[in-house]
Amino acid sequence: MSIATTEVSGMKNEVGVLNLICFVAAIAFVGLAVLNAILSGDFLTTDNLFITLVCLVMALMFAINPLLYLKEEGRLPVPFTKKATPQPPKLAAATTPLLDAKGRAVPPDVSAMVANMRRTQPKDL
Prior knowledge:
about 120 residues
C-alpha cells in the first residue's frame, strides 16, 4: 500500500467521523427544539420562540456539511432535478472551419489540437 492511498483512506475516515459528529449535533439541536416545545408551558412567548429558532438554525448549520458531502459523493438523491446525460463536446472544426489571421483554413492537425484544448477536462479528486 502506497503512502498516497494511505493518506486518502485516512482522510476519508476523518471526513466520515467529522460528518458523523456534525450529524449527531444536528439531531441534538432538533431534540432540544422539540423538548422546548413539549416542556414549555406557553410555547408562543418570545423567549420560547427565540430558543426554538436558535436550536433549529444551529441544527441546520451542523446538518449542511454532511448533506453537501453526500450530495457531492452522489449518495443523496436530490428531488426535482433531472440527471444530465454527459454529451460529447462539440468540436468547433466540425461546424465551422478554424481560420488563421488572414482568413485561411488552418491544417487539420492544428484544428484538432485547438479542439482538444477547448474540451473541458473532468475534475480530479
